[in-house]
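Protocol step 4 of 5: obtain the predicted structure for the target chain.
Materials: sequence only (see below). No template structures provided, no constraints applied. The aim of this step is simply to have a reference model before the mutagenesis design in step 5. Sequence pasted as it appears in the construct record:
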Amino acid sequence: MIGRTFLHYRIDKQLAAGGMGEVYLATDTKLDRRVALKLLPETVSANPDARERLIREAKAASKLNHPNILTIYAEEEADGQDLIVMEYVPGVTLKELIERGEVGLSDAIEIALQVAEGLRAAHEGDVIHRDIKPGNIVLTPEGRVKIMDFGLATWRGTKELRDESTVSGTIAYASPEQVQAHDLDPRTDIWSFGVLLYEMLAGHRPFEEEHFTALVYAIVRETPPPLGHFRANIPAELQQVTDRCLAKSPDGRYQTAVDLIADLKRARKALESSGIAAATLPSERRPSIAVLPFANLSADPEQEYFCEGVAEDIINALTRVQGLHVASRTSAFAFKGHAEDIRSIGQKLNVETLLEGSVRKAGNKIRISAQLINVSDGYHLWSDRFDRDMEDVFTIQDEIAASITRALQVILSEDEKRAIARVPTADVRAYDYYLRGRQFFHQRRRKSLLFARQMFERAIELDHQYALAYAGVADSCSFLVHLYPRHGYATDETITHADEASRKALELDPTSAEAHAARGFALWLLNRHDESHREFEIAIQIDPSQFDAHYFYGRACFQQGRLAEAAHLFEAACGVQENHEARYFAAQTYTALGRPALAERSYQLASVAVEKHLEMNPDDARAVTMGAVSLCRLGQQAKGLEWAERALAIDADDAGVRYNVACLYALEGEKERAFGALESAIKAGFANVHWIENDPDLASLRDDPRLQELLDKLTTPD
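Step 4 output (structure tokens):
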């Protein structure tokens, strides 16, 4: 093509090439100016749809005259070749800048403002771009931003709003309504703008799943991590702009680019007043770390709970640091006892550094050793040994957390310093009992919940101001009431205890996310749903990494039949930490919603999560039953039934286990065995009527009057 002339345009060199067009630098010999020519490749020039797209681009862009939109001079045809004559803009695409990590905070806001101004002009001209992405934004050496490629553009009010090519070609930037082939309006561009803004600030897109179905699901359902997870110093105003652009419903987004521009200017002002406006920080990922469970070097093997507790509290302290990404407890602790290479663990957890350590207790003396290791080369970034009295355990944890942040060059705010240095109790004996209780509570079984409650209560006996211990008591009681009411736990005494303990926890520490989550769970059991939801939301607002708040809130919504909210919350819980129960209930929720593709994907994830959990907890019968149901849902009936028998062999007295086995039989269409197992579960203590009413696994029993008879018995006082 070089040297060829079309009409009075001489081609000088190729600028870009793609499946839907080739762009060349050319000279307009008539006006003696440089222009860009866009031609269809020969392989697609005969395609009427491709030709229509080229013409559409010319018509859409030519309607607009704005400094932030690439100018179209003409649409021509020469030698059987359709071509667009465009303004030539030297520079680089935003895609290139992001990939090179060269977009600072100030730069990002300025670029965003110019893109938004271009969108305002397009939308006021009734043009919807439909393909806003970094590759379609070019920056000149003078800093001017130009929106280009209107090949998918359409006009407001026309009926040609759906185009499969936009979904298959640039799905990562497509709005929820776009990927679901709904009618579009200018707010679809606002969403794509939000993805672009997130990518400039985080260094990667908010949704990065590799497979088409998973990506569509993420766009429609998932909430991306806060920008602060990937970059420090993000103004709250800028996070709010991004969140509003990425609202799943168009009604939740900015309704016009004018409103968007106003908020971007406010964000710019906030950045300027912060004193870091001149900084052009690279769009870098935050430093990342996983804290592995500490090894027990004590003579007493029973000290495992203490070693795990020390490591877990270091995790909790580090999660409060905005500039640091911390792997969840569940993910990191899955490697306990595994003789695996450091690099392999780091890759699996997607972290750059690992903290490993050991604990030796002897009487009132304690020795804690810790090493921070760089995953890429295995070298130690920091290590230390602490020989102290037990009373110094909190100081040791604080010193370890502070040393990690220094080694990773993370700058702590004053609030973060205070949060890390926060001492939960002045009594190390109370702390010891609290750690024992937490270990039992994580098992989530009837006997373990009873032990957990006892341990938390002993901690309170030693320290009456221990807010976390009160929250632990409340959660233990709430779970006993929720899961085992027929064992005598659904009594006024137990519910009242959950109510009082959660109120006391909040009274002692109103800033505790754990306390608000515990209060939300207790209020839910008291059927005070509006108050319950408010407490869960406060907990999540205080600490978005609070797994229990998302998980309990999800269960509350499922039981109330608020299935869409429940699905979102279970997914959010899994976003905090990979958890087999949350994965399983997400799958159940999608089944109840009639979303088979999402349900199948979730059951696959649940099955994997269950197997990982059972590697560390082989006697967890409830987890085995969840695995059994997941296998049956995935078409592996024989293996599922085998797992059901395995669960009963582990703990035949557990009501939850029996209930899940009943669900499995119902899925297999074995009604008699299902009813037998369900009656057995109810006799063993399962009495959650609302859960039974909403559980999709029992669908095959719905038309049988025996199910209603069982429900009537449960709701009729003895």
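Step 4 remarks: The chain has a mean pLDDT of 81. The two ends are 89 Å apart (CA to CA).
Proceed to step 5.
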